[in-house]
Amino acid sequence: MASLGLVASISSCKNYFDTEPSNSVGTEKALKEASLLQPSLRGLYDGLQGGNSSTSYYARTFTIMGDVRGDDMQCPTVGSRGNEYYKMDYTRDNITGPWFKIYNTIRRANRLLQMCEKLSQGASASLQKEIANAKAQAQAVRALCYFDLCRVYATPYPYSNDGAALGVPLIEGIPDNASTPGRNSLKECYDFIIKDLTEAISSNALEDTS
């Protein structure tokens, strides 16, 4: 009887202990929450600086990678965070920073595009307009990310055998953690970039801020 009472007690407490986190939202639920569309868009642009705790993208590293490897800039030998690029002293720890952060931003764009697709089903006219704008911005940012990846990690197009050289992996969805996609050709990458930008612009959903 005591055992039965213990089982009943545990069962009755199940709902009490199975609470949702107060500081996060599950992915599937988040993709259907219209109130999270704008926060997701802000998160996408946060990725362009490298994330809120990183400077590996436009906040610093990416913007100096080209200049410090040429004759446009020089880095002091002490106290410079760009020294590894200036000296071309690459390790698995420093060279992957921009690669990782740019793909992290692409992942955010892909999530936002998934969100737009789910929210568009049965949405009001005003929400449809907001969704179309967010979708166009996500496509434009994703195109920028792939363009930046190709500029740093692929052969310059004029020397690519008409785009036959390797570009970077094109990822449209959300791959699992064990996924290891191969590189697409450079032509495939630029075709994808142009497609994303063309669709974003032709949607007429981007706001004119001029």
- The poorly predicted ranges are none
Order of helices and strands: HHHHHHHHH
Broad CATH class of one domain: Mainly Alpha
CATH topology of one domain: Serine Threonine Protein Phosphatase 5, Tetratricopeptide repeat
Termini separation? 76 Å
Q: Based on the structure, what is the oligomeric state of the protein chains?
A: single chain
Just name the CATH architecture of one domain: Alpha Horseshoe
The biggest sheet amounts to:
none
Radius of gyration: 22 Å
% residues in beta strands? under 5%
Give the integer mean of the pLDDT values.
Answer: 85
Q: Count up the helices.
A: 9
Helix content: 40-55%
The strand count comes to 0
Helix and strand composition category: mainly alpha
What best-fitting shape do the alpha-carbon axes yield? globular
What does this structure look like?
The chain has 210 residues and is mostly helical. It has helices at residues 2-12, 14-17, 27-30, 37-49, 61-68, 83-86, 96-119, 125-153, 186-202. Helix 4 (37-49) packs parallel to helix 8. The longest helix is centred in the middle third of the chain and has 29 residues, at 125-153. The model has no long low-confidence stretch (mean pLDDT 85).
Summarize the structure.
The chain is mostly helical and 210 residues long.
